[in-house]
Amino acid sequence: MSETAGQQHPIGIYLKVWLLLFILSAFSYAVDLLHVEGYLRWTLILIFMFLKAGLIVTIFMHVTWERLALKYLLFAPLIAIAVLIILMAMEGDYTFMTREIFFDQ
Amino acid sequence: MTIQTDKSTSYTKPGIEGLVADWSSDRQTFDLPWGKLMMWIFLLSDTFIFSIFLTGYMNVRLSQTDNWPNPSEVFALEIAGQHLPLLLIAIMTFALITSSGTMAMAVNFAYAGNKRKTVILMTITAILGASFVGMQVFEWTKLIVEEGVRPWSNPMGAAQFGSLFFMITGFHGLHVTAGVIYLSIIARKVARGDYEKKGYAIVEITGLYWHFVDLVWVFIFAFFYLW
User: Fold this and answer.
1) DSSP code of B10?
2) pLDDT in tens, A1-11
3) For position B82, which CATH number holds?
4) pTM of the entire predicted model
């Protein structure tokens, strides 16, 4: 195996990401504190969540600097999870509907 | 194991061309220390475990007809007469993010060959992780003893809340606990000088695990506590 030099990047980038994660966490906490409700709440939660997750994976876990072969290894299987989520959301809705119809009788 | 050393067709090409080159010809596909690749594959499998937990939670919450307890209220704290929603969870989140930051810097100092700073930063990471677990113990105790939440029932609403809460946060807490132990062991070995010849990839591998624990918390925080 070719001995690749380890992941080394200027320390400043970690501090910046750290600060960003703090701010984004504060924002998502603010969503709750300010009682934002409905679709706006869910959208904001998801935006802040994906931004935070993205920063952690790309910078802290160094995926940006990894090879495409590894990126595909990590991200292609996630399609299966997306399919599962869609199927289970449909199934959950269906179960809820049948319960609404039959539980009260 | 025969490994091609010809650099012209090996790990140097970027993008699609490099992807094809990595998978073609009879040689090792991933240009990584084996421990790092194994950690990535483990984390991928762990991603599936947590995704399935959270998907199960989504399915149960969608299909229940009772009232789902409002997490903002369930996890509120009363401090000096002040009602503070989700305060403990916010502190736990900041503790974990800070520990992720210190871990990232530990990896950096490890590759720079600065043993002392690496050990200090890894120790801080472990302490922050341990404090996270401590706060979680406090949270669980409060929920079980004061509020009477059980895996099969709770006074606030839908009975499914308890089982999902204990399963998801419990499994995450278990990961944090394991991470603290893992970090302590590796920090001790770094301090002892075990990796001076082998190189410090192990610190990066430990870091991957730790960042993953933080990553999972981001999703739990969003879906369980905020939703």
Assistant:
1) S
2) 334 456 778 88
3) 1.20.120.80
4) 0.89
